[in-house]
Design brief:
Elements lengths: L2 H17 L1 H16 L1 H23 L6 H55 L5 E2 L2 H4 L3 H4 L4 E2 L1 H27 L1
Antiparallel strand pairs: 1-2
Helix pairs in contact: 1-2, 1-7, 2-4, 3-4
Length: about 180
C-alpha cells in the first residue's frame, strides 16, 4: 500500500479525534435524522410554525374586548404547544440515540481500521529510508533502513496532530 494513502487515512482519523467523536457523531446524526426521519422533523417544523402563528394571533386579540375569541385561540395554542412538545421530545430522543450509536460505531470503526492496517502490513516494509533521512539511527531503528507500518503510522499521526494544531492556532490568531 502506498504510504501517501496511509497518511491520508491516518490524517482523517486524527481529524475526527481532534474535533471530537461527539461533534462528528452529532453532525452525522443530524444528517441521519434529516434523511431517514424527515417526516417527523417536518411535522415538528410545522407544529412550531403553527405555535408561532397562534401566539401572534393571540397577541393581536384583546383579552378584554373579545374574550370568547381569545379563549378559543388560547385553547388552540395550548393544544398546539402540547403537540409540539411531544413531537419535539420524540425527535430529540431519536437524535440522541442516533448520536450515541454513531459515536460508538465511529470509535469501533477507527479502531478496526488501525488494527487492520497493522495486521495486513506488518510483515512488509512500506519503503526504505536512506542514510540521510535518519543519519546514524537508520540501521539501529530498522533493518537496512526499512520503515514499517507501525513507525509510519506514528510519524503520520504526529504530523497530522501538528498540522491540526497549527490550523487551530492560526484560526485563533485570526479571530483576535
Amino acid at each position: 500500500m502506498n504510504p501517501i494513502v496511509i497518511f491520508i487515512i491516518i490524517f482523517l482519523l486524527e481529524c475526527v479525534s481532534f474535533f471530537g467523536y461527539s461533534k462528528v457523531a452529532s453532525i452525522l446524526s443530524l444528517f441521519y435524522c434529516t434523511i431517514f426521519q424527515s417526516e417527523l422533523f417536518n411535522s415538528i417544523a410545522d407544529s412550531k410554525k403553527k405555535v408561532i402563528y397562534l401566539k401572534k394571533k393571540l397577541n393581536d386579540i384583546s383579552c378584554q374586548d373579545e374574550f370568547a375569541k381569545w379563549v378559543k385561540v388560547n385553547r388552540k395554542l395550548t393544544a398546539a404547544t402540547a403537540e409540539y412538545e411531544e413531537q419535539s421530545s420524540k425527535g430529540n430522543s431519536i437524535q440522541t440515540s442516533a448520536t450515541i450509536m454513531i459515536n460508538l460505531v465511529l470509535k469501533i470503526l477507527f479502531a478496526v481500521v488501525r488494527i487492520a492496517l497493522y495486521i495486513f502490513l506488518r510483515k512488509q516494509p512500506l519503503f526504505y529510508a536512506t542514510n540521510e533521512w535518519l543519519g546514524q539511527f537508520t540501521y539501529l531503528l530498522t533493518s537496512k533502513g526499512a520503515i514499517h507500518i507501525f513507525i509510519w503510522m506514528l510519524i503520520c499521526s504526529n504530523i497530522s496532530k501538528r498540522i491540526l494544531n497549527a490550523i487551530k492556532t492560526y484560526r485563533v490568531e485570526l479571530n483576535k
